[in-house]
Every structure is written in structure tokens, then in C-alpha cells.
Design brief:
alpha+beta; Cytochrome p450; 3-stranded antiparallel β-sheet; 20 helices; 12 strands; 48% helix
Amino acid sequence: MNTFKTLPPGPKTHSSIQMIQWLSNTLKYMDSARQNYGDLFTTYLASKNPTVYVSDPQAIQKIFDGESKQFSNPGNQLFKPFLGQYSLITLTEATHQRHRQLIMPSFHGKHLKAYAQTIDDLTEQIFAPLTPGQTFSAYGATRAISGKIILSVALGINKGERVRKLNELISSLLNYAKYPFVSSFFFVPWLRKDLGRWSPWGYIRHLMRQIDELIYAEIAERRQNYDPERTDILNLMMAAKDEAGEGLSDRELRDEIVTLVVAGQDGIASAMAWSLYWVHRLPEVRDKLRQEIDSLGAKPNLLDIARLSYLTAVSQEILRISPVEIQPQPRIVTSPIKLLDYELPVGTVVVPSIYLVHQREDLYPEPQKFKPERFLERKFSYYEYLPFGGGSRRCIGAAFSMLIVKSIIAIGVSRYQLELKSDRPVYPTLSGLNLVPKDDVKMTFLGKRTTNSDRPQAVLERI
């Protein structure tokens, strides 16, 4: 006798009402749904098919492990008009795997090490112009710097009219997309009506056309004057070949670069801002980090920094309590599968919830408290701690993102004296699928440190 239920329970209100609630206060909606319905609950937010959110680690393991047999990876089609059909985020199945194999080397090994000096130099620009007593916007600064980091690493350009214009356009796009009404266009396709430049969707398309023009111009110049010595991601992707000897087309390159410079920028800026916020909200954490970094001496290299246990734990806790994304890409059930007490039918959309897993009391006692020690006391599995998603869709830039988080923490605490302007807590809000600071993170620059960590050389020097 089959005792399994078909679908988990979930909110009973109309899907449009649920979408409004989700967009206006995403975390409240998710917390309430789990409290009322459990570790699996069903919604109809952005699909005609039922969408089941999952926050049980064993169920998530079954999802990730069963991807090739019981689930399809359709890619996030909601973002296709924005990122393109050849973005890693929107690609499906075999095509996704091909792109992933071509692009992954750009984010690992010797290439990742080569980006260290660029990240250090540009991160330093957050603090270098400041004067003692000056108040600055941490999130505003990290938004500006993350754009420069991404464009420099992705395209190998950090000055000139093209990079200036790209920065300006991407900033305008991201500033516009942070409003809940505008975010709704990415989740409710029928709202996407291009009624000209002054209509909401028309304005987004207007900005994207200008971004495309600049990126295609850069691709054309690279094709014409290819330099095999360049180490930026565009150059590496141009050189990459699959097993059949085929490379990426201009359109494929455009979609992957747009994904990186647009979708990646906001996530990196958010992670950097949350890093400054949490480290300086808790002076004991900041002081312990300083002691650990100072213990390395005058000129530690990137490998020395990366191995620091407390810095690593702090970075992990930042991405637990303030994950850049609230959920990985959805999966679709292709053959009935049992998750906990339910047997999900074919066509069900399944979404592991990064945010809800990271808030589990049984995994993370006092989950709303910032406690890096939890990562020193035990090792969490990929199904219990998943800031970069999991399975075949795990974020390809995870190591790159962790390098940036560690960089801003190391620079901020070892070279400078900073403090938060206010004791008021900063709460997250949804921008696209990223959790960003709802209110600006205001900080005061007190000056450079005068200890032995006030060095003329970068903490993260080139390897």
C-alpha cells in the first residue's frame, strides 16, 4: 500500500497574491511557509506547474544525486530574454555541460591566482581616497569596485571609454532592477511589454541593447587582433575548444560575458558589502582576524591568506547568514520521485532553498547570530551548506567569489581602521535573485592602521 502523499501542502492564496508577497518580502514569505508547512512546501509562484521548495538536507542530496536520472535541468528560462539563450544560467542539459567544460578552467588554478593582484589593487580603491572621519557607503563602494573587478577580470580592460560606458550602463541596470516592481518582470513573463524606452521593460531592453553593442565591439576587436598572452576570461573562452575542436561563437561569448558582468556583479558587490558589515558589527571578530593576518608577517601571499582558518570560517559564515542567492536553479521531475513523505509527480518544479537550509536550527543553533566558530567545530556537507548551489549547476565562480570575500576582509581589517556609522541592524532585500542590503551600509573611515600590517605592499601580492 502506497502511503506517500502526492504533493506537500503550501499557501492557499492565489498565485498572483503569493508572487506579490514573495517579491515585497521574500524572506518573510519563505520563513512563514516553512513554519506553517514544513521542510517541503508547494507554491505556484512562477510556473503553472507546482513548485516545491525543499530545505531538508537529505532531500536535497537526493535531488543533486539524482539529477541525471529523475530530474531535468531546464536552465532558468525566466532570465533568457535578459542573459540570452547561451548563458550557463539558461542553458539546458548537454549544451550546459559543454559550456561549463569550456569555461570552468578560467576560474581555477593558475588563472585564479593571476587575478589576485587585480582584485587586490581594485579593492584597495575603496579605501585609498578616503580621509579620516569620512563617512562612506559600503554597498555603494563595493558596487563600483565589483564592476571594475568583473570587467577587468572578464574583459581585461580597466580604463578607456568602453569600460567607462559599460560600468555606467550596468550600474543603471542594476539600480533599476532592485525595485520590487521591476524585479517582477524577471518572474512574471506577461509583464514584459516593450512599449518604448520610457516603459519599464522597454527601458531594460534599451540598456541591454547598448551593453550588447559594447560587448560585441570588444569581441570583434579581439577576434581581429587575438593575443594568446592575455589572461582575461574573454580571451581564455575564445581559445577554449571542445572535444570536436569547436569553440564558442560570438553570440555564445556575448551571453556568457553578460552573465558574468551583469548577473555576477551584483552578487559580488553584495558579498563584499555584507563582509564589511558583519566583520565590523562584531569587534571581537574583527580583532581576532587582525591577529591572525598579522601573525603571517609583513608580506603573506595569496596561498597564505587562503589557508587562514579563522578567515575562512568568517567568510563561510558571511555566506551562510547572508547568502548571495536565496536558491539555486530549479530542477524538473522527469520520473516520479519520493522526497520525505511525498511522491512528486512528473512536471513538478523542485527548488532547494539555500536561505532556509542556512536557517535550520538543527544545523546552525541560533541561526540568526553571526558565529564563525561553527565552521571550526564541524564540517558541513554540500547539502547542509550550499551558498553556491550544488550538483551540476553549482556556481562556476565559487572559488573566485570566495577569493574576493577574503580579499576585502583582509584589506579592510589589516590595513585600515573602520567602524559602522550606526548600530542599527541591516536587513537583506531581494534584487533579482540576490540578497542585497536593504538599507545602505554606512561606515566611517578612521584612518590607516599603524601596526606592522600597515604595509606598502599588497596583502594579496601576485603569485
